[in-house]
Predict the structure.
Amino acid sequence: MRVSASIALSLAALAGALPDATVKRQVSQLRPSYDFVIVGGGTSGLTVADRLSKAFPKKTVLVVEYGDIEYGPGSYDPPAAGASTWTFTSLPNPEVNNKTAFVAAGKVVGGSSVVNGMFFDRGSRFDYDSWAEAGGQEFDRSDIKWDWGGIFPYFKKSVTFTEPPAALAKKYGYTWDISAYGGSTPIYSTYPPFQWADQPIMWNTWKEMGLQEPKECGGGDKEGICWVPTSEHPVTARRSHSGLGHYAAVIDARKNYDLLTKHQGIRVIYPKEHKSKTPIVEIRSLADDSLFNVTAEAEVIISAGALHTPTVLLRSGIGPASVLKAAGIPVVLDLPGVGSNLQDHSGPSISWNLTKPGNFTPVPANMLNPDFLADATAGFDETPARGPYTLGMGNSAIYLSLPHLSPDHHATIISKIHKIITSGSAASYLPPDQRASRASRAMIAGYEAQLAALATLLANPRAASLESPWQTTGTSAGAFLLHPLSRGTVRLNTTHPLAPPILDYRAGSNPIDLDLHVAHTRFLRRLIDTPTMRGFGAVETGPGELEEEEVVEYVKRQLTLSFMHPCCTAAMLPEDRGGVVGTDLKVHGAEGGLRVVDMSVMPLVPGSHLSATAYAVGEKAADIIIEEWRQRD
């Protein structure tokens, strides 16, 4: 899509502010009941609310959101107060020197799409095909497909991609394939009108290391040096998020769509015949701690995110029986996968100094110059916006498969994964309460299925194992592990059940993750010896030449345990594989209209940042729900 001058001003106005006056903030403003109640107004939740309220103008939709309406500055905007976030610190991880993971998530209308890094990429086709593989024959028989063919149309539908002007594309070398896009939703992505002058240094470095340069990395094939769109408005360069695109842009025309902010969706409560009734939702006002119930005539959809959805389910009596009993919560549904299977991207970095850095301008250091900074600020307020503040967190990254980055060792790593499966030792890598409980068979079977899918994925020379993003040369390169084997948990805080949950990342609990981190680190070290980096006098400062055991210790010291991509804690898998929801996203055993729609439903974390996938999951979920209710009606 190209934005014409005639619609530029209206688009700019849309990016400006959320319609605060339409928001509900107390129970007296609500209707007696609703058809659909959505717990969580984040990326996926607002997508579903938008689509349902449009498809069914005679049905009512309520979104319950803990946060409030807030302006969401971009990740590199001029200094401004950021939107509210949840912050979590995990339990110590003994396998990696007792390091803790720091995780942040949006506590605001729009969820993490309001606070993330705006890096709007998709995984490869093989990442989503692995979801189907992990689901096995039961998912093969389902009419609802979550492989690449099943989700790609929703990637296209979920976003309006704006092509950059030809002169800008030529200046920076932007490439894309418009066939990977095609949506008309007011969720925007584009390439910014600015890059730092030294950005090409790393691009040339990766080319010298033999990496390919695909034209488009969002169409299913994603291996090489990639341009990645930013989730920003094509005219104003302001952040594009679900609070704008799926609420502000549509609410004036949706008299059946209510948003209740500053309220916590605590739990769902079933009547005695819980398997055939739609549950009611218990809600807490943050203003006075009062509790009240809202009746859902059709469905309740939990969309509170990968870290809070499990707590809503657990407080509802849905989860591992052993965990519920320990918390004193009556068991409604014994689903051991609730709060299990926690995954995230993690990784160390390598570092260097440039003894001959060159004379590039502009570079980030120019922002220290008052005149340059003033012009950058003024440019951001122009229409269309220009200058450094339009950049976000960058648009460049490499994605590389294990066979390509470690041709001598990848077979050994794959063999280790297969050995875990064939030796029957998979249980030893799971949390203790998933090894010996009555439900352990399902959790072990699910983990073995995931390991088999990951072995296929990691052996594929077209499926990336490593990501390393950049926006300027800098002095370091990060190594994101895209497909971890370790599995953590999200558990209810039994002392304060309404408080944020307790996270146990269990990083390194499967030591093959450390093998992968070492392979990634050794590959990145090779960039120091490229002609480009030698030309700038690159001197490595870490890790340097080390023995294998020393590299492992370096990784443990350097490791960032979370790149803010938590997922998979209410996994879409068969129940006998530890799944929480089926392909229709209904909670197993809850026949009366209870679904989960957010990043907790992914069985495996894809090789991408999660925002684009969250929109696509929301879009596909909405179509599933709409089709079912149209057939009923």
